[in-house]
Each structure stands twice: as C-alpha cells, then as structure tokens.
Specification:
The protein contains 11 helices and 15 strands. The chain is of the alpha/beta class.
Amino acid sequence: MAWISFHPGPSYLHAFLKEAWLKGWDKGLYYIPHRGAAFHELYKKLYRLFQRKLGLPKGFALYFISSATEGWHIVARDLGAEGSLHWNVGSFSKRWYTYARQWHEATLLPFSLKQLPAIDPKWEQGLFCLVYVETSTGFSIPVSYLVELRRRFPKRWIAIDATSALGGIQLPWHLADIWFASVQKCLGLPPGMAVMVVHPRLIKFIEKLPEQHYNSLSRLHKNFLRWEPTHTPPLMHYFLLYSVLMRIPGIKVFHRRLLYRKRWLWGYLSRYCEPLVPYKLHAITVQVWQMEAERLRALRGFCKRHQLFLGLGHGAFSRDTFRIANFPAIPWWHYKKLLRCMDAFFNFAV
C-alpha cells in the first residue's frame, strides 16, 4: 500500500492523472512542436479554463514559468527598481526577500503570527511582496487587508506568491498586479511548472520594458500574445494541467469544500494540539499544529506505522510542529484514517 502523505508540497496528486498521462501519451502530445498550431490551441484552452474554472477576469494575462522561485526572480528583476517591501511571517516570505535583495534594495517587514502589521502611509518602496498562504506557518493574508493596501497605495506594484492557494480557494485577482504559484500543491500536479497571472494595469507597463532576458516579463507577454512559451516547455505538465482543469468543478465549489474541511479538522485537532496561528488568520489550505517535540516525535512514529506521513514542520518551527495539507486532490478518507490514528495515539498508545 502506498503512503498517505499530508505534507504540503510536493503533495498528493489527483487520482485521475495516471489515466490522463496515458491519454496524452497515446495522443502523442508530449512531443508536439511548441511553436505549432497544436500547442497554440492547448495554451488557448488553458487560458479559457483559467477564466471559467478559476475565475480569472478578462484582460488578465497567463504565463507559464518553471517554479515560484523563478517568479521571485522575475518580479525582483523587472519590478523592483524602486525597492521592495516584504511581509515576513515565515520561511518562504523571508526567502523571497533574500532573493530580491540580490537585485535591488529590499526591506523585510517581520510581524507576529497573531496580528498583521498596520499599513503605514510612509512606506516608500515601489513594490510590495506578499505570500498569500505562508506554507511554513499556515498564516494567510486576509482579503480585507489587501483591499486596504490597494486603497492606500493605488500606484504601487503588488506581487503575491499564491503557491498554496491557487487552485484551491478563490483569489481576489484585482487586488494584486501579479500572482504566481507552482503547481504541486492545490492544483494536484507533479512539481516542475508554475503559472503567473498579470493584471491589465501591469501589462501596460510590461509592454514598455526591454526584452533583456529570456524570461523577462516583456518577453513572457509577447509570447503569450502568440500562445507560445519562452523556452522549450514541459509538455506533460501543460496537458496534465489541462486535464485537471477539465475535470474539477469551479473554484467556488473547492473553496466551500476546503473551508468546511478546515473547520472539521480544526474542531478535532484543537482538542489535542495548539494551532500555530489563530483561526481567523489561519489558512484554509495548510494547517500547522504545535506540540511538545518529544510527544510529536512519538506521534510521527505511530502514524508512520500506519503508513501515514504527517507534514514536516518548517524553518524555526521544524521541531515542534506538524503540517497538514488541505488540498483538493486529497480524498476525505485519508483525513478520516488520520484522525482515527490520532485518536488511537492520544487515547490509548501513551
């Protein structure tokens, strides 16, 4: 029997992907020319599916890159001329900052897991960088905060890493200028590709940028208008992404399902563990729970004997936390088995 993993990335794949992969193989889709008509049609279909299934508004652009890490590089290089401000509440938001400061002046804005920082009208940076769901801590930026940030700074660029959100919950697309996410979390795909979404306001700026790099925003957009990638693409990922978007319901359905499952898991786990982040700031898609390190080690071992893998803690909280991915591809029975196992541990094993 295969392991059941709750690690938030790379995470569980949609069960139908094996069948989808074979279908792509049989159709010869993994060696089509990426400058030809068949690929153009696939790109167009993906764009329309993003609009229909994920609520992407008209006028936004959709690019494909290799990873969210590449997204950090692209944003820092092409949009950070006037400096960047980085909201920091975990390992990944801090790592984005460390990449950005290699390109320009970057400022870290650390804050508590219990409360967001007040919006300061004196912020001078031209680029604001936020991680929508901080996978290391489970902290999520509320939509209301983004609304106020956009209202206070209508002319600044807002960039959002939505890696543990895109494909699982509704995103307020209009509240940021550029979004990006890798595919191995909420989209239920193998790692190896990421998507990038750009607001029409930023597109006007991009069109004036020079094409200095193969993955410059200007080149990405120029190729998007031709339905082509900037480099030889991972064709398998394109087709599997298409297969996922064809099979899943609209994002509103997923959002409701995952929110319900968040409440269900929270109600159970809060009896035994402490949440790292308060409920109102805790992400729908990633739960992070804290307990004494030795006790956690025993719990992991107990789960392992039942072929269950709790998500590892990350960064400063690696020793005394475990993470549970609440992604669409993970079936309900996996969670029910996990909770039965945890019941046995907390009530009988020790």
